[in-house]
Amino acid sequence: MSCFGCGKKYGLFTKEHGCPSCGYSYCIKCLKRPMPVPRHGGKVLNVCLICYDKLSKLQASEKVIDIEALPGVLVTKSKGNNSTDPLVAAAAALLEYKKMYLFLNIFYYCII
Fold first, then answer.
1. Domain span holding position 31
2. Of 6, 7, 50, 100, which one has the greatest count of Cβ atoms within 10 A?
3. Do 71 and 55 lie in a common domain?
4. Does 8 fall in a domain?
5. Where are the alpha helices (DSSP H) in 2-85?
6. What is the mean pLDDT of the chain?
């Protein structure tokens, strides 16, 4: 067998290691990129170049929700125990946004 990254044959001095993200077989030189791995609860582990690129793009695409930028109706608080949790309101607003985005994409592709 050989390394999936560089093609080097495994032997006495070149040991086989599995990428914690994809599971493919790599030598230790090809597993030198630390990245939080979702399959391992976000633990920072050394991954292959392919997984590093994918996980980097995934991290870059994650958006932080600004609660102050949400519509006031969703984040209103009243006196007493019936106050709306801002995080729940943010999650609800994000879900509505995703539903609208999906609807618009389906509508667009049905027209074409």
1. 17-61
2. 50
3. no
4. no
5. 49-61
6. 77
d(CA 77, CA 28): 54
Split into its structural domains, the chain has a count of 2
More confident call, 41 vs 69? 41
The model's pTM is 0.52
Distance CA 92, CA 108 (A): 24
Q: Is position 30 within any domain?
A: yes
Q: What does the pLDDT look like over 20-67, one tens digit per residue?
A: 999 999 999 999 999 998 888 889 999 999 999 988 888 777 655 555
Quote the longest CA-to-CA distance of the chain: 70
Euclidean distance between CA atoms 66 and 78, whole angstroms: 21
Nearest Cα residue to 22 out of 59, 55, 56: 55
